[in-house]
Design goal:
Blueprint (H helix, E strand, L loop, with lengths): L19 H12 L1 H27 L7 H16 L6 H4 L4 H7 L4 H21 L2 H9 L6 H25 L5 H29 L6 H29 L13 H20 L5 H14 L15
Helix pairs in contact: 1-6, 2-3, 3-8, 6-8, 6-10, 8-9, 8-10, 9-10, 9-11, 10-11, 10-12, 11-12
Length: about 300
C-alpha cells in the first residue's frame, strides 16, 4: 500500500480524540480576558510576594510569612473559579444553544464536564507557570519541608477543582444575586462536608497519626471533595433541559437539599462510628449523586461518536 495515501495523524488531529465541548471551551478560554489578565496579575503578584518573603527573613530572624501561598489560595480558590460564573449562560440564554448541543449527540454530562475540565486545565497551566517562582523561593531559603510544600500544592489543586464545580453549578441561574448566593451556600456546606468526613479522625485518633491514619485522612478528603464536585456539576446539568414542565418541581431543588443535608449525614455517621463509618455514607452519596437525574430531557450517558 502506498504510504502517501495513508492518513497522517498530527497535532491538528488530536482534537478529534477530545470532547468537542472541551476543545471549544479551551480555545475560547486561552484567548479570553478572564484568563489573560489574571495570568499577568498573578505573575506580578508572585514577584511582589517573593520580594516580601525575602525581606521578611531579615525582619523575622530567618522566618517570614508565606505571602506566596496566600496569593495562591486567593487566586486559585477564589479569583479563577469566579471567572466561570457565567459559563452555562451561553447555552441557556438567548437562542438556547443547549438544544442544538443535545441534538448533536452530546449529553448534558459532556457539557458540564467539558467546562469543568477546561477551568481546571487553565488553572493548572497558570499553576505550572509559577514553578520558577517556587524555585526562587527554594534558593533563597523560603521553602521548608518539600513534602509539606507538595501537600500544599496538592491542596490548592483540589480546592480549585472543587470551587470550579461549585461556580459552574451555580452559573445555570440567570440572576447574578442567585448565583452568588448559591456559590456561598455550596462552598459553605462543602467546607462542612469535608470537615465532617475528615475532622472526626483527628477527634478520635491518637495524637501521633500512623501511616494508615494519614492515608485514610487523605482518601477521605479526596472522596468528600469528589462528592461536592459531583453534586454541584449535577446542579448545573439539571439546568440543561430541553423543555420546562410547569407540573414538575424545580429541577435543582433535590440537589440543593442534598447539598445542604450532606454535611449533616456525613458528620453524624462519622461521629457515631468514630470517624471510619463516614466512608460508607460518602460512598452512598456519591452513587446517589451520579445516578440522580432530575427533570425532563434525560439523555443516555454516552460520549459523542464520530
Amino acid at each position: 500500500m502506498d504510504r502517501c495515501n495513508q492518513p497522517i495523524i498530527g497535532a491538528a488531529d488530536f482534537r478529534d480524540f477530545l470532547s468537542p465541548i472541551f476543545v471549544k471551551e479551551l480555545r475560547q478560554g486561552l484567548r479570553a480576558n478572564q484568563f489573560v489578565w489574571p495570568f499577568i496579575a498573578v505573575q506580578i503578584g508572585a514577584i511582589i510576594c517573593i520580594s516580601l518573603e525575602y525581606m521578611g527573613r531579615h525582619v523575622f530572624d530567618g522566618s517570614s510569612p508565606t505571602f506566596f501561598y496566600g496569593l495562591l489560595w486567593v487566586v486559585f480558590g477564589g479569583v479563577l473559579p469566579l471567572t466561570l460564573i457565567g459559563s452555562l449562560q451561553p447555552e441557556l440564554a438567548g437562542g438556547r444553544n443547549v438544544e442544538l448541543l443535545l441534538m448533536s449527540n452530546l449529553s448534558r454530562w459532556q457539557i458540564v464536564l467539558g467546562k469543568w475540565y477546561v477551568g481546571s486545565v487553565l488553572s493548572g497551566l497558570m499553576l505550572i507557570s509559577l514553578i520558577p517562582y517556587w524555585l526562587v523561593r527554594y534558593l533563597v531559603g523560603s521553602v521548608g519541608s518539600i513534602g509539606v510544600e507538595l501537600l500544599l500544592m496538592f491542596g490548592i489543586v483540589l480546592i480549585n477543582a472543587t470551587m470550579n464545580a461549585i461556580v459552574i453549578g451555580a452559573s445555570g441561574y440567570r440572576n447574578y444575586v442567585t448565583r452568588v448566593f448559591m456559590i456561598f451556600v455550596s462552598a459553605l456546606f462543602a467546607f462542612f462536608t469535608v470537615m465532617g468526613g475528615v475532622r472526626s479522625l483527628f477527634r478520635f485518633a491518637t495524637r501521633s497519626l500512623g501511616t494508615g491514619e494519614i492515608i485514610f485522612l487523605v482518601t477521605t478528603g479526596l472522596a468528600t471533595m469528589a462528592l461536592v464536585v459531583i453534586l454541584n456539576l449535577q446542579m448545573g446539568r439539571a439546568k440543561l433541559r430541553l423543555f420546562e414542565n410547569p407540573l414538575d418541581p424545580p429541577s435543582t431543588a433535590l440537589i440543593v437539599v442534598l447539598i445542604i443535608c450532606t454535611p449533616i449525614l456525613v458528620g453524624i455517621t462519622a461521629g457515631i462510628t468514630l470517624g471510619k463509618g463516614g466512608w460508607l455514607m460518602i460512598a452512598i452519596l456519591i452513587a446517589l449523586g451520579i445516578m440522580i437525574d432530575p427533570g425532563p430531557g434525560r439523555k443516555n450517558r454516552r460520549w459523542a461518536q464520530s
